[in-house]
Design brief:
The chain has 74 residues and is α+β, with helices and mostly antiparallel strands. The protein has one domain. Helices cover 22% and strands 31% of the residues. The chain has a four-stranded antiparallel β-sheet, covered by helices on one side. The radius of gyration is 12 Å and the shape is globular. The two termini are 22 Å apart.
Length: 74
């Protein structure tokens, strides 16, 4: 499944000031890395964000927010 290019462009624009931004095709989608660490990913039209433990509860309480489905159980 191809990543939503419009969504990918919005992520690029949001992170455009970061000099350490790289992109890599992974997990059947597109991942955005900051300083070599995955920060966001797009699979199809789903946006995945790494928010950290302090923002986790708030993130999953938002409309369409949910924990990531992981085949590896992580």
């Amino acid at each position: 499944m191809a990543s939503d290019e419009g969504l990918a462009q919005r992520v690029r624009e949001s992170l455009s000031e970061r000099m350490d931004l790289t992109e890599k095709k992974m997990f059947g989608g597109l991942c955005f890395l900051l300083g070599g660490n995955m920060a966001a990913g797009i699979v199809g039209d789903d946006l995945m964000l790494r928010v950290g433990p302090d923002a986790h509860s708030d993130a999953i309480s938002r409309p369409y927010g949910r924990e990531m489905d992981s085949p590896a159980g992580r």
